[in-house]
Amino acid sequence: EEAQKLAAFEARVGEGEFVEAKDWMPEHYRKTLVRQISQHAHSEIVGMLPEGNWVTRAPTLKRKAILMAKIQDEGGHGLYLYSAAETLGTSRDQMLEALHSGKAKYSSIFNYPTLNWADIGVIGWLVDGAAIMNQVPLCRCSYAPYARAMIRICREESFHQRQGYESLLVMMQKGTPEQQALVQDAVNRWWWPSLMMFGPHDKDSPNSEQSMRWGIKRISNDDLRQKFVDATIPQAEVLGVTVPDPDLKWNAEREHYDFGAIDWDEFWRVVGGDGPCNRERLATRVKAWDEGAWVREAALAHAKKQATKAQA
Ligand code: 3HC
């Protein structure tokens, strides 16, 4: 009975069909989606912190307004994705408890410090650029609520990437030599961590085989990383910056860029909680959660009063 259901399910997603919340699904499919969508949501929420540092330090009112809009978008993406995960039967409290206790992951990229204003432009260009690469295929994820959430998120990510790149163009084309050096230094610090956003090599990725078979992952970690490098190097050339990889070179045969080895010790150290800012990021999240408890209690009390009034 169960085996028949699984076979029918695999045939359905194998033909590119979509799964809705009320459809039958294998427990492992549900579990791996809760894992991925909740960690994606955590990434969006924690991702607000490195940029939040620079709202009060933005160089102009225009840049401040753009940065605030971007950070608000990220918060919205997080809430969108928590809602998508809730359709699978998990709760907001369970997901947030997993984040605050250190059990759940979020993208390693947000554990690096934002040292100056150039970092904000480089995050938009490289981090949101990598996020778009990884999120566009998710618009065709076999789990329909997740795919639908991704359509709006990808549109907003494109604005994030464009605004970051444009602010770097201004610094490179109209900035002082010191400002140009700030941009190059930021690229040197963010390039490799951005490549790590795509996850381990396919051969070292425990979830990929199952996720690709079930139509959750449409393009592999390594293929997406390659697409990102191929698309980004020409943008770096227009900007007038280089990436910190002496092994980078165009391979006319492959029609792709060859690039150097990623430091997987750094990757697993940061994913494991021992990156430059992991403790600070988590402490900030837990503090916000604790300090916000009275707001949640008041909202619940108000909702209860409303419900009682409605029944009276
Ligand atoms: N940081 C932290 N953990 C990572 C990671 C990273 N950069 N890359 C991989 N991992 C984790 C995986 O979560 C998995 O651990 P788990 O089983 O405990 O969850 C383990 O490393 C092995 O990796 P796999 O490749 O086997 O795992 P996946 O098949 O889940 O692939 C992924 C990893 C490509 C990140 C995939 O989960 C995914 O596509 N997630 C949705 C997109 C997402 O979360 N992107 C984060 C970008 S940040 C963002 O979107 C904010 C934007 O506004 C800037």
UniProtKB/TrEMBL annotation:
It holds the Pfam family PaaA_PaaC. Its EC number is 1.14.13.149. InterPro entries: Aromatic_CoA_ox/epox, Ferritin-like, Ferritin-like_SF, PaaA, PaaA_PaaC. One of its GO terms (molecular function) is phenylacetyl-CoA 1,2-epoxidase activity. It is an enzyme of class 1 (oxidoreductase). Keywords: Oxidoreductase. It comes from Roseateles subflavus. NCBIfam families: PA_CoA_Oxy1 (TIGR02156). Signal peptide: none annotated. This is 1,2-phenylacetyl-CoA epoxidase subunit A.
